[in-house]
Design a protein that fits this description.
By secondary structure, the protein is an alpha/beta fold. It folds into three domains: 111 residues, Nucleotidyltransferase, domain 5, CATH 3.30.420.40; 129 residues, Helix Hairpins (Orthogonal Bundle); 108 residues, no CATH class. The chain is built from 15 helices and seven strands. A hairpin with a 4-residue loop joins strand 1 and strand 2. Helix 5 packs antiparallel against helix 9.
Length: 398
């Protein structure tokens, strides 16, 4: 059997092939990220029968290569770079080049025999792209909002006393026309009151009068053209991002209607379309994990501290492992779920009653939620919680 390792790069990759004894069959050879480079790769690899190929999940650069190899029938294992780095350290490898890395990945495949990965189905792949695009736009929205807060604090700090949230359509509509306190000087109450901010609602005379009066006494000192232009552009950006986020949310819901596992996950109380899409994007099919504990470990909500001997280490956190994107997405979901989800609330309250700190109980509830996700995906049945009246424990009947 042959084992190939590919060190993935942006425009050029490196491949090496070894046998079962880790003897080199093909020295590390470069090939490009183009059709001629792929043709050279297939020539170096030989027939797909009896060949296990391993490559690292380096950014997005490995994805076209993975699809091309899978289409040719090669068994391809996608590795976490941390595993190959630890393997190199175990072999006392000190020099690091693309050629050495490719050979090291091939020898890792020969010794560890990692399982081959599978191409995700089209629906899952589309949900992953839509979910991550929405996450990126949400980050852009939050960034623009922070900049808007700074600009408004400098030009009209009293504004947020009357319009309490700058992320609203109301705030963007007013600030795009009157970006600083000086812009309100000479403004007509009736004209400001008639402005429509969401297609149907008007600002109203009460708010218009309050803003004009506050602007006249504002302590804001920055009213020059650069500050007005900044606020105007930020409001425009927020409007565009707000519309795109709504469009993406509708598209995600439409895609979930055709996704079996996604629809099952949404039967869990507290898990909506956007959360279900995030779970599918980061986990694929949760049933591919061998247990609920495996999902918890992948996400990074499993206990990792193990101590022996007399020394006791501090409780300070170590290097974080797991899927940080999914942990971040689930944090607020779990905080809301422990209030409105009966079975998860009972579990959370039992931990708190036992003296567990709040964050520890939330993380435990997150693990419990992931166990429910794994259960419905594995059994392919809607979630049906069972809440014992006397025992104070929660189990899942699916």
């Amino acid at each position: 059997m042959r084992f190939a390792g590919i060190d993935v790069g942006a425009e050029r990759h490196m491949v090496a092939v070894v046998d079962e004894e880790s003897q080199v069959l093909c020295r590390s050879s470069p090939f490009g990220e183009d059709s001629s480079g792929y043709a050279r790769l297939f020539e170096l690899l030989g027939p797909p029968e009896g060949c296990l190929l391993a490559l690292e999940a380096t950014g997005h650069y490995w994805r076209n290569l993975f699809v091309a190899l899978s289409a040719k029938g090669y068994a391809v294992a996608v590795l976490n770079p941390l595993r190959t780095r630890r393997f190199a350290e175990e072999e006392l490898q000190r020099t690091k080049t693309d050629a050495i890395d490719a050979l090291g990945i091939a020898r890792f495949a020969a010794q560890k025999r990692p399982p081959a990965a599978q191409l995700p189905d089209v629906a899952t792949e589309e949900l992953r792209e839509l979910s991550r695009l929405r996450d990126r736009l949400q980050e852009d929205f939050a960034s623009r909002l922070r900049q808007l807060h700074r600009a408004v604090d400098l030009g009209f700090p009293e504004f947020t006393r009357h319009v309490h949230t700058l992320e609203s359509q109301l705030a963007a509509t007013i600030l795009s026309r009157y970006p600083t306190a000086a812009s309100f000087h000479g403004a007509s109450v009736k004209k400001l009151a008639r402005i429509v901010y969401d297609g149907s609602h008007k600002i109203g005379e009460e708010l218009a009068r309050a803003l004009i009066e506050a602007a006249a006494k504002s302590v804001g000192s920055y009213h020059s053209e650069p500050y007005r232009v900044r606020i105007k552009y930020l409001c425009e950006d927020l409007d565009v991002l707000r519309r795109r986020l709504k469009d993406l949310a509708r598209e995600i819901e439409r895609k979930l209607d055709d996704h079996e596992v996604g629809k099952l996950i949404m039967t869990i109380d507290g898990v909506g379309p956007l959360t279900a899409a995030c779970l599918i994007a980061e986990l694929g099919d949760p049933a591919r994990f061998r247990s609920a504990g495996a999902i918890a470990s992948y996400v990074g909500v499993a206990p990792r501290l193990r101590q022996s001997g007399k020394k006791r280490f501090s409780g300070s956190p170590t290097i974080p492992f797991g899927n940080a994107r999914l942990r971040k997405a689930l944090w607020m979901v779990v905080l809301n779920a422990v209030r409105c989800n009966a079975w998860l609330r009972q579990y959370y309250e039992r931990l708190r009653a036992a003296g567990k700190p709040g964050k520890v109980a939330v993380i435990a509830a997150m693990r419990k939620l992931l166990a429910a996700v794994w259960s419905v995906a594995t059994h392919r049945r809607p979630f049906a919680p069972y809440i014992p009246a006397m025992l104070g424990t929660v189990t899942n009947s699916v």
